[in-house]
Design goal:
four-stranded antiparallel β-sheet, globular, single chain, 176 residues, alpha+beta
Amino acid sequence: MDSVRTDVVDFYIKLGTKVVDASHDQDTTDLHKCVSFICDFTPDLEKSKLCILVAGALGGRFDHEVGNINVLCRFKDTRIILISDDCLIHLLPKAQNHEIHVLSSVVGPHCGLIPIGMPSRSTTTTGLQWDLSDTEMKFGGLVSTSNIAKGETVTVHSDSDLLWTISIKKSQDSSP
């Protein structure tokens, strides 16, 4: 947080917030530093239950978005969800059977699966409008965008890490 304003830091200090100045480290992003801090201070027995929700991680400068997505890859054993006004993204680590529960009143139906780090030689899904069956995906080839979650459960298995993204529904204004 090397660009944070002094008055903002002072505000949080007055609330009792512990402020850690890691601005000397310019090789990692602010999000990387925050996730490292959280992981370092989470007891080992609790780490498997840890889920970090990151609001405002998408929708700004593209290089910052890519940096935030890179944090997902660097901490692939930690469940981190990047949230914007329009969608959420999280990493599905390779060689696992993932079962994604879709709360259709909040998210969907538009979704996508994007190989990250390396091409996927084999991805198989259920619960999508256009399911994949042992499908190869890579940049410069097929990536699963503009798909539709059909029900409450989507399953995914891939031989490479994938990004799962799904749209977030806008709340309806109920005022007269």
